[in-house]
Amino acid sequence: MNPKMAKLRISLINIHGLLKGSGLEIGRDADNGGQTKYVYELAEFLSKHENVAHVHLFTRLIDDPKLSSEYAVPIEIINEKLDIRRIPFLGKKYKPKEQLWEGLDTFVNGIVQHIKTHDIFPNWIHSHYGDAGYVASELSTILNIPFAHTGHSLGFHKKKKLIDSGISEEEIEKKFKFKQRIAAEEKTLELSEFIVTSTEQEIETYKPYKNFELGKYHAISPGIDTSKFVPYYHIEQDSVKQMEEEQRKYWVTETISKFLINPHKPFILALSRPDRHKNLHTLIEVYGKDKELQSIANLVIFAGIRKDITQMPESEKDVLTDLLLLMDKYDLYGKMAIPKKHDVVNEVSLIYRYAAEKRGVFVNLALHENFGLTVIESASSGLPVVVTKNGGPSEIIPTCQNGELVNPLDENEIKKALRNILTNESQWKYYSNNGAINIQKHYSWLSHVNQYIDYVNENLSLSSGSGNKKQHYPNINIDRLKRNVENLLVTDIDGTLIEPKLNNPGLKELKEYLINRTDKMAFALASGRNLTLVKKVIEEEKLPLPDFIICSVGTEIYYTNGKDYILDKGWATFLAGRWKREDIANRLKEIPWIRLQEEQAQNPYKISYYYDKEKYDHEQLISVLGPGWYKVNIIVSHGEFLDFIPKRASKGNAIKFLCRKWAIPLSSVIAAGDSGNDIDMFRGSIKGIIVGNRSSELDNYVTTKNIYVAKKSASSGILEGLKHYKIIK
């Protein structure tokens, strides 16, 4: 099917923050601001596009008693073409974004497993912020699906700003994980099909990155729901909706008026998170120092949602405390309102309209604003603006002619702009009318998603649906992994698949069977060998290429695509928990009857030795390992090799991990082996084959109905076992 004609299934990824269909908690904390709102509305409007089949919004599952139980629902249906899919990782509690980096590979795993289980393979992915960029890069590699990315903010600039403020690099790194974040942003520039920015100016912010030239950029202005953000003079035709609006407007009025002596006066409105960067204190300074401005208008600041300032995160607590102290310093009681909360979904548009009815003005003095969503929301409501000239607003104001640009640190310039709008009726009307008309033309979500879908379809049509960057990077053969597998044969190599001493009995017949197998049969190699040695035997013996390789005694998993071998990072992350390699290696120096194997036999999750069979003492090993011995798997094989690996690592656990990830029932697995390091594969509902030439470690192994002991050796024994299980007739 021509990709231009195909309806798109799009996966959006937004990991941190709080997303739900019944109302966003914008302003709750630093992770719940404009990005959350942007992503949710983008998902909504994409789902309404005629060329979109379905939108899946992937985020983190949170089951925290302090939060709504809605965040713990695995799949939330928003409409017939949109759902939120929540994937658990790093526990159940809500965590700030900086604490999520270490769990991203687990999140990738969870998404792959979910997509395969529910058969919702997308043909396009879009990530938001650096953490999701990392996840999309991994998914794109695993699933061979192209992706686009929106940065929202960049680690390079935040790090520089913090260093310039005098905080040590060590302290910054500990809290914000900039090394991981900037590396993820570099990788995203390299692998994404294109980067979406809000303005042309924003493209410049990517220039400090090494991979800037590898990125392709499309400036697409964010949109607003122009059916919600309507001019203040708009009259709702639906009588029920009109009554609901009147009720909400009454409560908005009450919320603001209770602070003010003269609530009938126009008001200067600011609405943002309590973030130092938003520069709200400068607005209070300007207002507090100017008695004339105080006589003309009230000041109304909505600074996020708060219950008890003392219980809030330090940065937000500091900002809010400063705002209240400034209110006190300039004695603005009765002239300044700073409400504790507002309903982001239902009340923000009414707040703008109420301010416009009062002939007020909206102010955004952020030190830098990537775009300025509040600027177009207020303008669409017919409310003139005084706004920072740094960033996106410098492109909005010339386009819409709806207010004045100012230096956010120049108090005199801000004061003049406010007075000009508040005291000049014709100027106020000019800005008000321009905003209401021009925002509808240039900044609607409809316009945004139309441009976006055009760019996506252009990319897919030029690349036969695979993305233009596909040819440069290794990808898994996803079609092999997408298929419904009825049986997975996992076989050890040395002594099982091949046995040169016996002239490899049955190898030719087994190879023929595997080469001619149908898509219903998957094939994997599981070996104590490292990847280099596994590749060597595949080439030497001309083995059919496996779907999976489990190597280095179950400590590494690779996928194959005919040319490249791609590491499963999710498995590596899973193994890292409670594994202290250096400590274990140091303790084992006390054992005289072991000798480290060559460097190529080692890896981050495997310490390999040769051992003296006559002197082997298992109890001595446990004693030397100390209290942490139970976190280590000790694997003896072929009377010669001794491996120490994480407790979680083994061929058997690797098989279970793969089966979960690719939705293959364990009862569909047939595992073949000959030595001690294969025992772990013969557990649970897996069907086992022990070949006739088994090593001494398996001589006394107690078999079950799920384990078949073959009479024949090596590959002949595997074929015998496959016939026993009626896989081969």
From TrEMBL:
Residues annotated as transmembrane: none
A family per Pfam: Glycos_transf_1
Domain Sucrose synthase first GT-B: 10-225
Gene3D superfamilies: 3.90.1070.10, Glycogen Phosphorylase B, HAD superfamily/HAD-like
EC class (word): transferase
Keywords from the named record: Glycosyltransferase, Hydrolase, Transferase
Ranges for domain Glycosyl transferase family: 255-435
Reactions mediated catalytically: beta-D-fructose 6-phosphate + UDP-alpha-D-glucose = sucrose 6(F)-phosphate + UDP + H(+)
GO molecular function ontology, one term from the record: phosphatase activity
The keyword Cell wall biogenesis/degradation is annotated on this UniProt entry: no
EC number assigned by the record: 2.4.1.14
Sucrose phosphatase-like domain residues: 487-726
Superkingdom assignment: Bacteria
Similarity comment: family membership: Belongs to the glycosyltransferase 1 family.
Protein name: sucrose-phosphate synthase
